[in-house]
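@channel sequence for tomorrow's demo:
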Amino acid sequence: MKSVLSSGKKTIFFTVSSTPSFRNLFFLPGCVFEKILEILKTRDDLRFVFLVPEELFRKFSYRFLPHQSESCAVEGIAVTKKLTTGQRLFRFFYSYLIYTGTTHLLASMGTRPDEMRPGSRFIAPFKMGIAYTFGRSRLVKTRIIPLLFNRIFRERPFGDLFERYAPQGVFLPNLYSWFDTLLAREAAERGIKTLGMVANWDHIDKYFMPFRADRFLAQSAQVKDGAVREQAYRAEDVGLAGYPYFDFVWRKEYVVKRDEFMARWNFPDDAKVLLYISGSSYCPDEPEVIEEILGVMDRGGFPGNTHLIIRPYLGGRFKDKDFDEKKFNKFEEHPAVRMYRRESWSDLGETISYLNIMAHADVVMSGFSTAALEVSLFDRPLISIGFDGYRRRPFHRSVRRFEYFTHFQDVFRIGAVRVVRDFPQLYDAISGYLKNPRLDAERRARMREMMCYKLDGRASDRILGEVIKMID
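structure tokens (generated this afternoon):
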């Protein structure tokens, strides 16, 4: 340990606390991690220590272990997630210091049709009351909550690491996570500079985050507005970086030619390709939607020789996982259907395969999915399914409730996504886009401009620049 303390290097702690964080910064060619390895070749005064939750250490360690050195270290950290009753109550209180459309959806309705928290809708006014009283106070958000947090949560899993490495700065790319929250608290207690981000565009307005970084990096103006409006950041403390994994997606160097793609999927050369991105057990009526689409295809009701790729949801939890994996099985034997069941964002080859599907799809369909941004990068028409198949479920159990998502409101306002409310509207939208793929192209361009910041391949450079600036 003495050699660690006596290294004389400027040390930066850097968390890898979730799969989205890994995807954003460590996975794709040209990522932030690769740029860190390059800069360490010329800066012998720097050291990066990557902190990974113990349960993810084995999954991610392959990326770090080959590069371990005095300047590049990785540590697996155990952080307990078991809370006392008092801790759960406090966490409940500070979480609802904001109450957006997203928190309303997640906290009052239940998210799955077969899952309803007892009394959840009846305590929604109480949650709103927290936001509209205590949540209006900047003092509560920025001073009182951190003070109470330190008194209520005594666990200090990172204390020994601070003593061993003596970091000058901490980068927290997933402030929404419990892991990053506890590290942010430790850094604040010790007066260590912090730089923070959220891992996804739908995190900033879900729940209040009890610790703010000294400087926050937003992927877009939309995320910056949420950081100021909901998370009590001052505008001057928020910078703009762009989406780092878009650096790779936007370059499109990996996109194969159309004929190669069609051969890979055993499609006729003249086929029109529809892509359906599943919304998991949140959307149990999707098989009915697929059944109707195939019925129209079989009758020759769409322009051209239409084929369909279904991308089932692979991230289900517990009992949902089996349902998610099997709900489209009955369509596998259809001659115009192909299934893409492989996990992307974990294997580069599979990620490239999935991106090529989006690049070559003539029309993409999904629920109110975060895939909307990726689809917009390829300028593909996107249809959001805003109805429940053959039935009309009560609103609190319907896919229509996902229109509450706050981060999706800008998508609606721009009009880059066509929302359909019944089968005839769905057929018309598919036919219209197949006849004229340039429909709504200007709106998709506006969405890229407004919600993706700079698509110049430099987001990773901007992020690393801010990280180094924090300690130089």
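heads up for whoever presents: The longest helix spans residues 138-152.
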